[in-house]
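Narrative of activities, Objective 1.

The group set out to show that a structural description can be obtained from nothing but a protein's sequence at a throughput compatible with the screening campaign. Below is one input-output pair from the validation batch, recorded exactly as produced.
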Amino acid sequence: MAGIINSAGFSYALELIVAALLYMFFLKKRSWFPVRLALSSVAVTIAALLLTPLFGGIQWTALVGFLIIFILLILLCLCCCRIALREAVLCGAFAYLTQHFASALYLFLIYEGVVPEWGGILYWLSYGLAYAACTVLFAANIASDGHYNVSGARSAALVILVVLVSLVLSWITKYYDTGDSPALFRACQIYAMAVCFFMLWMEMTAEHDVRTAERLRDVEAIWEKRRAQYEMSRENIDMINRKCHDLKHQIAALADMRTDSGRKDSFIREIQDMVDVYDSSVDTGSEALDTILMEKGLYCHLHHIRWNCIAQKDVLDFMDAIDLYTMMGNALDNAAEGTEKIKDESDRNISVQIWRQGGFAVMQVENSYAGDLEFREGLPVTTKGDKTDHGYGLRSICDIAEKYRGTMTVKAEDGFFILSVVCPAEFSEAEETGI
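Output recorded for this entry:
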């Protein structure tokens, strides 16, 4: 056992696994993570013990052995973390670059005994410092929300670079060294560290660029929603102006009627219908919620959607007005979009219910929809061509619900899409900030 632990294969496997663990720490973990890590680490270690003896020179067997260990390291990342294959490839590549950076640093320090080993302390010190630096600079900054925003092409390009750096630079400097030029050997180690550092920095920069682009798309999506809300408000105002204009003339015509009771009754019914539209507002105790419900109710009337709203008072008074307006606005925008696809106007329905149940505030929006819905990870899959921006409204609702320690759920049932938000009714700002 002592011979195995002290072997080059075991130390090589341990270095790679620890390097991978540094990056996996910031990724979403799968269930039973410790067990998965232990079993997959055993597989990588066995492969390293068997294949490391092939790394004695530049030959095709060494290349095959290196690639097998690399593939096993990628599978280790994929087995332990809830990430896509392209992300696991990136994680494995990061681990190799970090290990190679630490190895080059150690060789630079120890070459020809310039710096003493101190009983193996130098090995642990050099790897510990290199791994700590890579964790702070790269591992903690590359991942976003437990994932890497990487394409398959970018991860493949990084793998090619890693293979070139690990094979060409490492083997040439290690196995073609004649000992005649220590300065050249140290220069090669510095060059190897610089290349590894640059590649890690390049990937971190690329990740930041992707995140910036995503934030820009989010800002554009918000702007587009505000523009759509402005257009909808303008339509509602135009409708109110038309209705008021019609109402004025109908009242005048009604005053002139003397004998035609049939036409008179018809006018009265039309006037009552118009009045009902503006008399259907709900007093929820929140000006923001009253505003959005009134506006969406008018929108539904204009677009021939049956509208039903029942709301208990002061149920959502613990929510910030902007959060409440955004959450309900996104929910009703999605409901209206789904309902308007139904050709038969008699089947268009939107229902809003807000009530208190026990110590929880419940908001539920139901809308009829056409076609079939496919769900993935609890959310509907878009049928739109642009899959990048789809789901922004639902993600926003989910984020707001989680802000108030609540949950959002969606389901399709009997031709209705049902969105529910449940939050503790006694939420306070102190709970949010942790004061």
